[in-house]
């Protein structure tokens, strides 16, 4: 039996370049918490934490972006806040997490309090490259999801569009994790509709090889805008990832030492697919698997400890560093537990 993991929606990407924009970030997060029926006291806690995140992002990093996300399963929901910057980085992460400490070049005061109020918290910083912070808030400090924290994705719509044409899904069974990414052709609502259909169909599929899943997605996307699709099946016990792609979804197995690209065949799901093939690749212990749309350039190289970081931190860092094209962008990461 396999099940799809909770669905994540990137509700808003917000720039924090001026102090006044901190209030906009706080309202986006608290409004989402209210729509998800969080208790009033928890909404207030989220507001305080997000204000701290935004204020320090502007003050110490010179600005950046905050992503407000909803994470939903059938019965539960969470608010997730992601802060990304290209600032000087944190000189001493441990010091920055200490209550009452504020050091030039760090996110600064109050991060310890933010971490305590969040149900999941991660912070990663590289000197001279920037910082990524992730905080997830559940309604009552009781994480209800069947989510082991080994997979995460991130999407960002092209400027001027509210809906992103890229989407992803993750399905997990006893010893396997299966990743799917779709880049709907073009931009806007029609591209988003195609990628949402890919997610729906993928989550309803019975367990099977990636090439069968891609072939089924190709058929399902007829009548839509179509798009590029890819499916990667990770068998950590056997140390193998089987990958099938149709179109220009980029994929790689990443270790501390190298980035090994995986091969997609030409075509457009829903329109043209001469053949769908799958290829097997070694999945060494501690490796990560990364899938991304062409909104990210493929010319990124992993730093030495990339695969040791939480997957959402990895996804955000890749979006920051490689998401330089004017296009919808999506990235999906699975790391070793």
Structure explained in plain terms:
This protein is of the alpha+beta class and 337 residues long. Helices cover 26% and strands 32% of the residues. The chain has 7 helices and 16 strands. It has helices at 21-35, 40-61, 93-96, 111-117, 188-204, 210-220, 311-322, and strands at residues 3-4, 7-16, 64-72, 77-84, 120-126, 130-137, 151-156, 166-172, 176-184, 227-235, 240-246, 250-254, 259-262, 278-282, 288-292, 329-335. The strands form 3 sheets. The protein has a 6-stranded antiparallel sheet with strand order 1-8-9-10-11-14, with helices on one face. Strands 2-3-4-6-5 form a 5-stranded antiparallel sheet, with helices on both faces. β8 and β9 (176-184) form a beta hairpin. The chain is globular. Mean pLDDT is 90; it is low at 102-109.
The tally of strands reads: 16
Provide the spatial order of strands within the biggest beta sheet: 1-8-9-10-11-14
Binned, the helix content reads 25-40%
The major sheet is characterized as:
6 strands, antiparallel
Q: Proportion of β residues?
A: 25-35%
- Helix/strand order, N-terminal first: EEHHEEHHEEEEEHHEEEEEEHE
Distance between the termini: 20 Å
**Tally of helical segments:** 7
Tertiary shape: globular
Structural class: alpha+beta
How confident is the prediction overall: mean pLDDT? 90
Radius of gyration: 19 Å
Q: Give unreliable regions as ranges.
A: 102-109
Short structural summary:
With 337 residues, the chain is an alpha+beta fold. It is built from seven helices and 16 strands.
């Amino acid at each position: 039996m396999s099940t799809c993991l909770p669905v994540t929606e990137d509700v808003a990407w917000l720039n924090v370049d001026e102090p006044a924009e901190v209030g906009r970030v706080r309202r986006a997060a608290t409004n989402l918490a209210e729509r998800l029926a969080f208790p009033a006291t928890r909404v207030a806690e989220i507001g305080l934490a997000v204000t701290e995140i935004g204020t320090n992002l502007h003050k110490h990093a010179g600005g950046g972006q905050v992503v407000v996300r909803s994470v939903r399963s059938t019965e539960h929901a969470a608010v997730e806040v992601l802060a990304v910057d290209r600032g000087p980085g944190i000189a001493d992460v441990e010091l920055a997490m200490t209550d009452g400490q504020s050091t030039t070049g760090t996110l600064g005061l109050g991060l310890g309090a933010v971490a305590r109020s969040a149900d999941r918290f991660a912070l990663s910083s590289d000197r001279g490259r920037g910082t990524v912070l992730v905080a997830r808030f559940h309604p009552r400090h009781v994480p209800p999801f069947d989510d082991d924290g080994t997979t995460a994705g991130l999407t960002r719509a092209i400027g001027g569009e509210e809906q992103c044409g890229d989407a992803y899904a993750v399905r997990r069974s006893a010893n396997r994790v299966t990743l799917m990414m779709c880049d709907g052709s073009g931009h806007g609502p029609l591209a988003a509709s195609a990628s949402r259909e890919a997610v729906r169909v993928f989550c309803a599929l019975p367990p099977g090889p990636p090439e069968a899943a891609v072939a089924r997605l190709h058929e399902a996307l007829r009548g839509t805008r179509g798009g590029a699709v890819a499916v990667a099946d990770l068998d950590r016990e056997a140390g193998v990832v089987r990958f099938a792609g149709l179109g220009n979804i980029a994929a790689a197995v990443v270790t501390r030492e190298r980035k090994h690209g995986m091969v997609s065949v030409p075509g457009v799901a829903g329109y043209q697919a001469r053949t769908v093939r799958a290829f097997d690749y070694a999945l060494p212990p501690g490796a990560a698997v990364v899938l991304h749309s062409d909104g990210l350039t493929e010319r990124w190289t992993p730093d030495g400890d990339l695969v040791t970081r939480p997957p959402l931190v990895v996804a955000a860092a890749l979006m920051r560093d490689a998401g330089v094209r004017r296009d919808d962008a999506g990235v999906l990461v699975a790391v070793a537990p």
